[in-house]
Design brief:
Elements: E1 24-31, H1 35-44, E2 51-54, E3 71-72, H2 83-92, H3 95-102, E4 106-108, E5 111-115, H4 121-134, E6 140-142, H5 144-150, E7 160-164, E8 168-170, H6 172-185, E9 189-191, E10 198-202, E11 205-209, E12 214-222, H7 228-234, E13 242-252, E14 263-265, E15 276-279, E16 285-288, E17 292-293, H8 304-317, E18 326-337, E19 343-346, E20 352-356, H9 362-379, H10 405-414, E21 421-423, E22 428-429, H11 430-438, H12 444-451, H13 464-474, E23 495-496, E24 502-504
Parallel strand pairs: 1-2, 1-12, 2-9, 5-14, 12-20
Antiparallel strand pairs: 3-8, 4-8, 5-7, 6-7, 10-11, 11-12, 13-16, 13-17, 13-18, 15-16, 19-20, 21-22, 23-24
């Protein structure tokens, strides 16, 4: 096992010998390193299993999880009688302990769901009753006077709001990294940049082919996000279809920090929870998402039309927010099943399990989904013997910006690299960037999502060149091989002379 728990390329651990043919052999292979795949890996690392995670991107959390709104829902949104409803509240209650153990950004700030018209009022009353039936605590209906006292920047035309104190915000990419570091320090192995291109069924399990290595697994857990139905089809196990639903989000300048102190929800639409105001864990406010059904599973574009819809909606309940305050924008794809519910359970092919259709509240439910799947594996007859020693906590990344002056002085005394600021907007030091590289970051986004370098107002305008220098030294990469998020996102290229011969980077 890699002692450092790196979450990038699989550089640690001696592969388990597999069946003849040069394949790596495992009891369980998880396909997909998003928030659910990472939660599954940590949960299963408690047991005496040969365990591997195969991820098509160059880092875990680089798919839907990276573009997630970062909301831990309060527990009352999803209706009873669905897997979403069963696992939402259960998952909500598991995040406090996970955040303490894995050291990622997490804070319970509560939410307000707004009634802007008389027609919205019965929905709030029904949602409160639904939440209470599920055991959600602290739900209250607030009138206009209480709303204006608690959130003075919201429109005074709001008629009522449902307050849910159990809602939280989280850095989902940090959670992915933390979950995987923990899984790897307990024996799980990780293979990134390894899309599954073929799956074969054998008497004793499955073969999996990737461009990197070939694998043998007794059991496959298909947590491949928006591609989960296509992965299932490779094994002849497809009994559902996913449709992509795009959501555009907009991050605002820090000057708007504090304009609201809670998550702000409108009364939901048929296809989504509507356009939200999200005070992120690190301070900046985010607005969105849209909800647009698309055909292209690679469509991560943002649009003028999407921005217009987002800011027109937000201004109805918070007039001070403007599109002029946007510092960056991005889009993500939700994986929507025909039932609009999670698809979790055994497939028509023995030993192949679906964990698919994980749209909202998938982030909230992720740790409960992991526990639920462990139960399914036990029911299927997999022998799960707990390890005598299992280490559930990790050291976590250094955070210079959150240190006191005394702590900063001590850190610089231990390591002068803490005294060299790389990212001015987010106060990220050279020592933190080097930490990210030591943990496996080999891309600009790998550094960005571990330690926030490049996430501020200038969006990397100041720090990108310095981070590239550190990547070139720490990761041993030529500048021409440094990318934003993997192949196809190179930052610079080699010069060529008149004959077309490369002169190097």
């Amino acid at each position: 096992m890699d002692k450092k728990g790196k979450t990038g390329r699989n550089t640690g651990g001696k592969p388990h010998p597999g069946p003849p043919g040069g394949r790596l052999g495992y009891d369980v292979v998880i396909i997909g390193g998003g928030i659910v795949g990472c939660a599954l890996a940590r949960e299963l690392s408690r047991y005496e299993l040969r365990l591997a995670v195969i991820e098509k991107e160059v880092e875990v959390g680089f798919g839907t999880s990276k573009t997630n709104s970062g909301i831990i829902h309060a527990g009352h949104h999803a209706p009873p009688g669905t897997l979403k409803g069963e696992l939402e509240w259960a998952g909500n209650q598991l995040w406090d302990e996970l955040a303490r153990d894995l050291k990622f950004g997490f804070k319970r700030i509560g939410e307000l769901l707004l009634a802007q018209t008389p027609e919205d009022l019965p929905y709030l009353a029904a949602l409160k009753k639904q939440g209470e039936s599920k055991g959600v605590t602290g739900l209250e209906l607030w009138g206009p006077e209480r709303i204006q006292k608690e959130e003075p920047n919201l429109s005074h035309a709001i008629l009522q709001a449902l307050h849910a104190p159990t809602a939280a915000v989280i850095n989902p990419y940090e959670a992915c990294f933390g979950l995987m570091v923990c899984a790897r320090q307990n024996g799980a192995e990780l293979f990134c940049g390894a899309p599954v291109i073929a799956i074969g069924k054998e008497a004793d399990g499955f073969t999996l082919e990737t461009p990197r290595e070939n694998f043998h697994a007794r059991i496959i857990l298909n947590a491949a996000g928006i591609e989960a139905d296509r992965v299932a089809a490779l094994a002849g196990a497809q009994n559902f279809t996913l449709s992509p639903r795009k959501g555009e989000e907009y991050l605002l300048d820090r000057r708007l920090q504090g304009i609201v102190s809670r998550l702000i929800f409108p009364t939901p639409l048929a296809t989504s929870k509507g356009v939200l105001i999200i005070p992120t864990f690190d301070g900046p406010v985010m607005v969105g998402p849209t909800a647009e059904d698309v055909e292209d599973r690679c469509d991560l574009s943002t649009t003028f039309a999407g921005a217009s819809r987002v800011f027109a909606a937000v201004r109805k309940y918070c007039p001070a927010i403007s599109e002029r305050d946007t510092i960056t924008e991005f889009a993500g794809l939700r994986a929507v099943s025909e039932s609009n519910d999670f698809v979790i359970g055994p497939s028509p092919v023995e030993g192949f399990f679906h964990i698919a259709g994980i749209q909202s509240p998938g982030l909230t439910a992720a740790p409960a989904i992991a526990a639920y799947v462990v139960g399914l594996l036990k029911d299927a007859g997999l022998a799960l013997v707990k390890k005598g020693e299992w280490q559930g906590a990790i050291a976590g990344p250094p955070r210079f910006a959150r240190m006191s002056l005394k702590e900063r002085k001590a850190a610089i005394g231990r390591d002068p690299a803490y005294g060299r600021i790389v990212c001015r907007c987010e106060t990220v030091t050279e020592a933190e960037v080097l930490y990210a590289i030591a943990q496996g970051a080999a891309t600009l986004d790998g550094v960005k999502f571990r330690v926030r370098a490049g996430m501020g107002r200038c969006q990397g305008g100041f720090c990108t060149a310095r981070i590239m220098d550190l990547l070139a030294g720490g990761a041993g990469l030529p500048l021409t091989e440094i990318t934003k998020k993997g192949r196809g996102s190179e930052i610079c290229c080699s010069r060529q002379d008149d004959s077309g011969a490369s002169e190097g980077g």
